[in-house]
């Protein structure tokens, strides 16, 4: 969410009515999230000036660890230097820390491609935004899910119940520090996640949703403490419930 919002902001800056705008003091502390969107808190160090040049050798974009040769345009400006400066700063301050860690395994290669392409400045801001929107579409639609055996048949579902809230086993990347709370596309995906975790014996699908509209599911190591909840469905492994009375 943070990276996509940043890319949308940089897309606007690259195509603003004033021309391409560079953020000269590009640091994480210069941004804040407002209603799920990233905003710039200080525009004092923004510039629409692009480096003047006479030849391509005048257009080197330097960073502490990398340098990029750019083209000198026919109007004597270093072509796209403001856009590329913003994009590489987004890569080194945001993408490298946020993109590799929390996506479903099937989407990680696509995010890795974005990371590598922006780190080498092979993508401009237009290509970067398209790549992010493709990943978002796959994520929201569930098209990233690989064909696999149907596992939900191995679970008993109880509508109108949930387990008592409390500290349980933890997983990554959980929305709660007390247990294992993950976003899912469907109960079938939740069953696959539960089967992949040795501690998991049940999971609860709630009405709570993430910014992408995906429901949250809480994965539990037990299922015995059930309480009524009209907005939840608890799924219990048949192997865990064998011999027990529901």
Automatic annotation (TrEMBL):
GO process annotations (BP): skeletal system development
Signal peptide boundaries: 1-22
GO terms for MF: non-membrane spanning protein tyrosine kinase activity
Keyword Plastid among UniProt keywords: no
Hydrolase as UniProt keyword: no
Alphabetic keyword roster: Kinase, Signal, Transferase
Superkingdom of this protein's organism: Eukaryota
GO cellular component: extracellular region
Annotated protein name in UniProt: PKDCC kinase
Organism of this sequence: Dicaeum eximium
Upper classification of the organism: Eukaryota, Metazoa, Chordata, Craniata, Vertebrata
